[in-house]
Amino acid sequence: MNESQAYHFIGLDIHKRTVAFCEKTLTGKTVARGTIRARHSDLVEFAQSRGKPWVGGMEATLFSGWVYDVLVGHCVELHVGHPLRLKALSKNKNDRIDAELLANLLRADLFPTCHMPSPEVRELRRVMRFRNFLVVQATRMKNKAAGLLMETGAQYDGKKLHGKKYFSELLAGLDEIPPSVRELLRMTRTSLDVFTSAQGYLLRALKRHAALSGRVELLKSIGGVGDIVALTWALEIDDPNRFSSIKKAQSYCGLCSAQHESAGKQWRAPLSKERNPHLQRVLIEAAKLAPSKLGSLERVRDAAIERGYNKNRATLAVARKLVGYLMAVDKSGSIFVAPQPG
Predict the structure, then answer these.
(1) Dist. CA 203–CA 5, nearest whole Å
(2) Stretch among 131-140, 202-211, 272-281 having the lowest mean pLDDT
(3) 116 vs 32, 53, 113, 273, CA distance in Å?
(4) What is the pLDDT of residue 1?
(5) Domain extents for the chain?
(6) 8 Å CB contact between 38 and 15
(7) How, if at all, do strands 54-59 and 30-37 pair?
(8) Cα 117 to Cα 120: distance, rounded to the nearest angstrom
(9) Spatial separation of the C-alpha atoms in residues 84 and 316, rounded to whole Å
(10) Which one, of 228, 224, 271, lies nearest residue 250 by Cα?
(11) Contacts by 151-155 with C-beta closer than 8 Å and gap 24+?
């Protein structure tokens, strides 16, 4: 293919208000470079004004989703790059250099592409993550209410504190606390009720969604996997076939650590920060309870403890095995059958 027939390659460095671009030919000749406003109309006008069919590339950021949706219909291919891999390739950093780097990687076929979920999956994932945010805020309100009572020396039952009836009776009987604290306690209770109600509504909506309900029920056939684990797995993993092995899925979930060896001595580094934190959190929480629900996971935990692992490492071993079960069910589309001992 000669240069007149080849595609052009455009690197896009995306920011909140602007998008820097660099357009190159297959041989590396710069055709155009500049900056456009990060608006739907400006991006469409830019895409339609290209003189030749083009292949685009951008780094995965907070703004990549909507830009991808606007441009994907106007180009031959549009790639989203892995941010950490791109960072490792760039020593000097500014908008002009970044856009040119993306264009050069595209034309050399070295672009570190990462998975881009469909708009529907991204929308549902956004809802699930917002639900998790509401749960965190509700927990903060609970802690704040308890803290206010402790600051004023009020006596209360910690196990019943967040029940509506007990809280109302407690507030009515506390004469020794200042009026300002009484008002703050009412505000924390109101906020707690709002957050709890909202997260429950979002969770029920996700469970009923047509694109998720069947898949979630299959995943829940695994002992110890409930609604939260199943929904988080389905939305964060999206397509399980993008992982060629269970080990890669475990690494994506943040359940692996680097192994070091020197002079015959081995030691493990802490868990990598390069992971999906949403999956890591729910899988580790599930791994603490799952052995009581599924005998094969209990045997994994007991075997890890017999090898001298502490409780945390044993929990990680259970979480890694749980990932294997989730991958098997998700890829096969079949109900989980627990392995027999022996």
Answers:
(1) 51
(2) 272-281
(3) 27, 22, 9, 21
(4) 47
(5) 8-107, 119-208, 219-259+277-332
(6) yes
(7) unpaired
(8) 8
(9) 25
(10) 271
(11) 151/181, 152/176, 152/177, 152/178, 152/181
Higher pLDDT, 262 or 238: 238
pLDDT digits (tens, 9 = 90+) for 217-253: 999 999 999 999 999 999 999 999 999 999 999 999 9
3-state SS class at 266: strand
- CA angle at 244 for the pair 243 and 248, rounded to the nearest 5°: 60
Q: Contact 76/43 with Cβ under 8 angstroms?
A: no
First to last CA, the chain: 60
Measured distance CA(186)–CA(169) in Å, rounded: 12
Nearest CA-CA partner of 103 in 15, 1, 21: 21
Burial 61-98 (b: 16+ CB within 10 A, else e): eebbbebbebbeebbeebbbbbeeebeeeeeeeebebb
Confidence of residue 257 (pLDDT cuts 50, 70, 90): confident
Angstrom CA distances, 286 to 6, 60, 219, 243, 336, stand at: 51, 29, 13, 22, 17
Which residues on neighbouring strands pair with residue 18, listed in sequence order?
Answer: 37
Asked if residues 96 and 88 have their Cβ atoms less than 8 Å apart, the reply is: no
Q: Which residue has the tokens 């891999």?
A: 85
> Which CATH code for domain 8-107?
3.30.420.40
Q: Which of 22, 12, 76, 83 is nearest to 43 (CA)?
A: 12
Following DSSP, what letter does each residue of 89-104 receive, concatenated? H-SS--HHHHHHHHHH
Q: Tokens in use for 154?
A: 């009020």
35 forms beta bridges with: 20
Query: Cα(13)–Cα(4) distance, rounded to whole angstroms?
Result: 26
Residue 3 has pLDDT above 60, yes or no: no
Angle between helices 227-237 and 277-289 (to 10 degrees): 150
